[in-house]
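User: Hey, my collaborator sent me this sequence without any context and asked if I could get a structure. I don't really work with proteins. Can you help?
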Amino acid sequence: MFKRLILWLFLLSAFIGMAITLLVVCFMWIWLGHQQIEFELQLSEVSILLSCLTSLVFIALAITFFKPISDLKKLLSENPFSDIYPVFLNHLNPFDNIRKIVKRNNDKSNTEFEKMHSLEQYRREYIGNISHELKTPIFNIQGYLASLLEGGLEDKKVNRLFLEKADKNVDRMINIVMDLQTISRFEANELELQKETFGINQLIEDVIESEQETANKSHVIFELYGGNEIIVEADKFRMRQVLTNLLVNSVKYCKPDGGKTSIRVYELENSIKVELADNGIGMDEKHLSRIFERFYRVDSSRSREKGGSGLGLAIVKHIIDAHGETIEVMSTPGVGTVFSFSLSKPEEED
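Assistant: No problem. I've predicted the 3D structure and written it out in C-alpha cell form, which is a compact way to encode the shape of the chain:
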C-alpha cells in the first residue's frame, strides 16, 4: 500500500512539475521575446528546474496526503468488523479507494437505516399487539369479578357462569405468557431438542384425534393421505406442537360453511416433506412474509373471536428452524392455504 501511494504521489508530482516547467519556459520565451533578447535555455537548466519543482510538489503532496491516508489505513486495519480494508489496498489510486469506501459505507448506512426503521416499526406493532392481547382478558376478568362483587355472587344463575368465563380468560393469559416464554427460550438457544425416531403418520393421526372435536364444531374434516408409515428423526413433543398449531390454524380460517384440511407426507430422496392444505378463506400474498411474526393476524377481528394467543405460527417457525429445517406457505384468497415443512430421515446405521 505504501509503495503504491509513494509511486502515485511521485507520478502526480512529476506531472505537476512538468506542467509548471512548461508554463515557466513559455512565459520566459514570450517575455524575453518581447524584450528582443536572444533566448537560449539549456537542457540541463530545464532538467534542474523540473527536478526542483517535482521535489517540492512531492514533499507538499506527501505532507498533505500521506499521513491522513496512512491514518485511515491504520484505522481500517484495526477494525475487525470492517469488510472494506481489502478494497482500500487493492487499487493504485488511494483517492479512488476512498471514493469506493465512502460509497460502500453510504450504501451500508442506508441499509442499516432501513433495517432500523423496519425494526422500530415492528417494535411499535409488537408492543401494541401484546398490550391488546393482554388487555382483552384482563378487562374481561375485571368485568366478571366486578359483576360478582356487585351482587352477582349471590345469584346462583350467573355466579358460576361468570367464574367459569373469568377462568377461561385466565387460561388465555397463561397461554400467551407460556407461548412468549417458549419463543424467548428458542431465541436464546435455551431449549434443547430431544430428538428421536418415530412414525410421523401415527403422530399426525394422534393430533387429528385430539383436535377432532374442535374441527367438528366448525364443520371441518381432517384427512390424512398415505399408506405406509414414514419414520423421521425429530423432537416428537415439538412436532406435536407444530402439527397442532397448523391444524388449529386451518380450523380458525375455514369458510363459514366448513371445509377440509388434507395432510400428506412425502418421502423425498434426502428428507421427508409434510404438507397441510386447506380450502379455507386463504390470504393475500402481502401477508405471507409476515404470518410467522409474533401476534401478526391477517384478520384480527376473526382471529380474536376464534381465540388463541396469536403466537402459534411464530412457535411453529421457531421449532422448524431449531431442527435446521424449512417451512413454506402458499395461499390464494378464496381458495385456501398450504403449509409444508421438511423433516430429517433417521441416520442409516453402518
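In plain terms: Residues 2-92 form one domain. You can pass these C-alpha cells on to your collaborator as they are.
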